[in-house]
Amino acid sequence: MDDIAVKRHLSALPQDVIDAENDKLMAAHLYDYESLRVRLERSDVDIETVVRRLMTLEVGLPSWGMISGGTRFARFPMPGEPNNIFEKIEDCAAVHQIAGMTPRISLHFPWDVTYDYTEVRQYAEAYGIGFDAVNSNTFQDQPGQTLSYKYGSLSHTDRATRQQAIEHNLECIEIGQKLGSNALTVWLSDGTNFAGQAQFAETLERYLDSMTEIYAALPDDWRVFLEHKLYEPAFYSTVIQDWGTSILCAQQLGPKAQCLVDMGHHAPNVNIEMIVARLAQFGKLGGFHFNDSKYGDDDLDAGSINPFQLFLIFNELVHAEERAAKRGAAFDPSYMMDQSHNVTDPMESILNSARAIGGAYAKALIVDRAAMAAYQDANDVMMGHNCLRLAFETDVRPALAEARRRKGGAIDPMAAFRATGYRAEKARARQPRRAERGGIC
Ligand code: PSV
Ligand code: MN
């Protein structure tokens, strides 16, 4: 087995505690890893290749997911939560140190507004943390804001309100440039609660006009991600309600515009992996907001409700990766989480989600694609299906643990995190957040 990567950054967590936890588990880990190696070898899969590909997986963390989330009824903060962007970055760095696959944070404005972005960037860089897509927010009115978004923002009937929303997005791009980000995510909450409230066509036209101005301001190496969502806060219609409208708009805007798939933003029972395949095929898969859901946009931990769906999505992603590689084309969707942790420690939820996402990727990597293609050509339905079942049912945890370990992370993330006592220490050191009323963040 390869040696552990050399650390070049500040550590948010005591590395010796993580190493000591790993030492305790090393004998069992080696045994499990060897068993999996032998098991995979029987199917002609090289575990070393799987581990190396797993080590390339990177998922951005939502700044807003680092504090306890809330429902529209209440939010219950926990002791030791981060109070500002610096503390959120520190928590991200701690998660990354253990998980080895979350090297970026995705900021949300104005929630993360601060006065000196150079300082923020330097602080993050010291921890080895970079910046994922910046998110604009025209779904809330901010204190002192001139015009209200109550009836819409980028698609508002009023030109001045649209202009205000455009300018906010332009400001997000400027901030993102200071941070070294290279994408803007636009989730538009505009929509209607009543039939007859607005005309679908004109509303979309106004949205596209606004987006054209934002698109024109994108730096050369930037992308804009259009995030669709079929309902909430609007309950009759939304402007960008599904991937169909999203891809139409992305195509109209140009090559830098791509679609972002949030797992909870679809109608019930929609085949999300197929949406992923379609967007990838047409070069329009920009990114993900990983989470899970049972009923709607629940923002639950990735893989906690429907791990098979997560695996099927990664099955499409690996297929798309390999198709692109054959053509020498680029395939680089931006993977991010978007979760709301209402009853768990956000850092623990994120560690678990990273494990679920990495696990889904690992399982997708061991699918016997040549055999599956042959079964598909021969219309052998059961065996084609079983190629997926076999991979999904394989316990890939040792490969994932090895990928983490080689990056200096933990064989058992949760045990290591708890052993560091990080949250308890932060509960002593950080100002307690005041209990708030409802609201997502
Ligand atoms: C909307 O529900 C959403 O998924 C968008 O990504 C927002 O930016 C985020 O949640 C805010 O919590
Ligand atoms: Mn989202």
Automatic annotation (TrEMBL):
Domain Xylose isomerase-like TIM barrel as annotated: residue spans: 107-299
Highest taxon of source: Bacteria
InterPro entries: L-rhamnose_isomerase, L_rhamnose_iso, Xyl_isomerase-like_sf, Xyl_isomerase-like_TIM-brl
GO molecular function, one term: isomerase activity
Keyword Iron-sulfur found: no
Keywords for this protein: Isomerase, Manganese, Metal-binding
PANTHER family membership: L-RHAMNOSE ISOMERASE
Protein's recorded name: L-rhamnose catabolism isomerase
Gene name for this UniProt entry: rhaI
